[in-house]
Amino acid sequence: MSHLILDKVSVLYGGQKAPAVERVSLDVGKGDFVVLVGRSGCGKTSLLNVAAGLVEPAGGLATVGGRPITGPGPNRAVVFQNDALFPWLTARENVAFALRLRGVSADKRTRRADELLALVKLGGAGDKRIWELSGGMRQRVGLARALAAEPEFLLLDEPLGALDALTRERMQTTLLDLWAAAQVGVLMVTHGIEEALVLATRIVVLAPGPGHVVRTFETDFGRRYAAGEPIRAIKADPAFAASRAELTDAIFEGEAA
Amino acid sequence: MSVGAYSERARAKAGENDGFSVPWSRPRPKPRRAVSARLVSAITILVLLAAWTAAASLQLVSPVFLPSPAAVWAKFVVVARDGFVDATLLQHILASLWRVFAALIAAIVVGVPVGLAIGISRIGRGVFDPLLEFLRPIPPLAYLPLIIIWFGIGEPSKILVIAIAMLAPVALSTAAGVRGVSRERVDAARSLGATRAQLIRHVILPSALPSILTGLRIALGAGWSTLVAAELVAATRGLGFMIQSAAQFLVTDVVVMGILVIAIIAFALEFIIRRIERVLVPWAGRE
């Protein structure tokens, strides 16, 4: 089984003395939903970029399936906070982009793109232009586009950060549905404490100066949703509230109150 | 350069919508007896025409210096039908348009790759940036003699003069567009498996297209205003040539008519390119 592993990874940006991240280790297996949380400047996005192959670690080793990560690859699709869609293409063509790069025939990629659009509940919006879509719909297109590459891992950089609260809540369940359907490992960065709890199988709490791991929580709320329990019931569970308090404490631990 | 052009577009949009229409602002009540800018423009032009007519008909200025609008119009009809210096007006126009468009194509073929090189590679920027910055401020009349010495007085020289004037706007707008491509868009494409060539072809060029088109619009303006200089030497047709020949014989009405035709065509070209922009890059300004 394929694993995405960061082993004692440090990140140092050019022109800076202090590392952004120091000796952080992560292990994302297929079927895992790992969420990175922490205050600003704790290196969440840096770690995600290392996993994506967009940033080279200054120390440590990043591997996927046992091979060192040397650059971006279609086995690790990234979704950004701002959708980064291509406005000259329709929603369907955006989703089919990875397939077009691989030379898949127009017929096949249209069919696959429509399947994926249906999966993110955008069936019928395939011919829409990107600027005709709302923020939430764009992010769905972004997810479908990432899944089209048939990645083993989805790397999500605050994918719901730019959405309004109601849309975000709906997108959380969409993410869980996709995660369960696509059988991928997810590494996600978020600012939302509740969001982390709802989605994650494991939450990694980071603290800044330089970025390091403070605590790791194993949670099962996401799996419970995937198993069929309604999201409202999960959020109403006293265990959920207790976990939220514990997680909040961990994030603000060591910070002068 | 492209920044200015974009704000220009934004302002045009705002004008169309009659003020800003942000969703949270109520439509501003219209002030009573508002005068539209278009009406003012129309009145200005009419007043100028009237002044021109009056000055000409009262013989305030000799017709040799200032022919009346009616005389210019009459000349327009005559030249359109019978021609001037061995060519009809249409033939003059087509000769000029052909030179400008041939130059435009040359400027695109050279300028877009150069702009791309400036935008994506440090070496490209190091090589081409100083050259363009050197070339850009030189008036065409200054390098025209050199081009004639090098390439003779034939058609290629004329096209080359215009193309050189167009090169910098095309290349610099392309470079600006390429540099403006969002990092996330590039990273997303790379993580979807795009190679460097695919990245340029499928992401960078389309992203830069709005800026490239703005550059073409500026280049057409620059090229069109270089036309008269280009047709100074050994031309037998063309609007610039027509004006100069007329000036030599003090046929002032043809000179004035030629100037107006050049202005109207420039206006039409601008209009057409804006239309093309709207069709080709409907997303510009909406992201």
UniProtKB/TrEMBL annotation, chain A:
Coiled coil: none annotated. Belongs to the ABC transporter superfamily. This is Taurine ABC transporter ATP-binding protein. The keyword Translocase applies. CDD domains: ABC_NrtD_SsuB_transporters. InterPro entries: AAA+_ATPase, ABC_transporter-like_ATP-bd, ABC_transporter-like_CS, ABC_transporter_ATP-bind, P-loop_NTPase. GO terms for molecular function: ATP binding. Pfam families: ABC_tran (PF00005). Keywords: ATP-binding, Cell inner membrane, Cell membrane, Membrane, Nucleotide-binding, Translocase, Transport. Residues 6-233 form the ABC transporter domain. It comes from the Bacteria.
UniProtKB/TrEMBL annotation, chain B:
The chain crosses the membrane at residues 35-55, 100-122, 134-153, 159-182, 203-227, 247-269. It is found in: Cell membrane. It comes from the Bacteria. This is ABC transporter permease subunit. Belongs to the binding-protein-dependent transport system permease family. The lineage of its organism: Bacteria, Pseudomonadati, Pseudomonadota, Alphaproteobacteria, Hyphomicrobiales. It is a multi-pass membrane protein. SUPFAM superfamilies: MetI-like. PANTHER family: ALKANE SULFONATE ABC TRANSPORTER-RELATED, MEMBRANE SUBUNIT, TAURINE TRANSPORT SYSTEM PERMEASE PROTEIN TAUC. The keyword Metal-binding does not apply. InterPro entries: MetI-like, MetI-like_sf. It comes from Mesorhizobium humile. Residues 93-273 form the ABC transmembrane type-1 domain.
